[in-house]
Write a structure and sequence with these properties.
Distance between the termini: 49 Å
CATH class: Alpha Beta
Structural class: alpha+beta
CATH topology: Nucleotidyltransferase, domain 5
Order of helices and strands: HEHEHEE
Radius of gyration: 17 Å
Shape: extended
CATH superfamily: ATPase, nucleotide binding domain
Oligomer: single chain
């Protein structure tokens, strides 16, 4: 029911249909718990593209927002203290240029 509700909110915001999703899960989730999350999402007609650990999702989002230049490097510690556990992730960011070679 939660996925159906969130899907409805997302469709209103996007003004269109939502079919695919990426879901964050705690790193301590077992294999069976992860399968249950996928099953619940599929009941709401969502195709789960990936399950991602919460800290990794935070690190990716942080990296997307950064404006690094040249050979600048940045190391960041992500600290997540929840009710069940504490997770720490250290991520290092650097500039990566992609050139189109035809």
């Amino acid at each position: 029911m939660m996925f159906a509700t969130v899907k409805s909110f997302a469709e209103k915001q996007a003004e269109g249909s939502v079919r695919d999703c990426v879901i964050t899960v705690p790193s301590w989730y077992t294999y069976d718990q992860r399968l249950m999350i996928i099953d619940a999402a599929e009941l709401a007609n969502l195709k789960v593209l990936q399950l991602v650990h919460e800290n990794i999702a935070a690190a990716v989002m942080f990296g997307i927002d950064q404006k690094l230049e040249g050979d600048q490097k940045l190391t960041v510690l992500f600290y997540n203290m929840g009710g069940m556990d504490t997770e720490v992730t250290i991520a290092r960011y650097s500039m990566f240029n992609v050139t189109d070679k035809k």
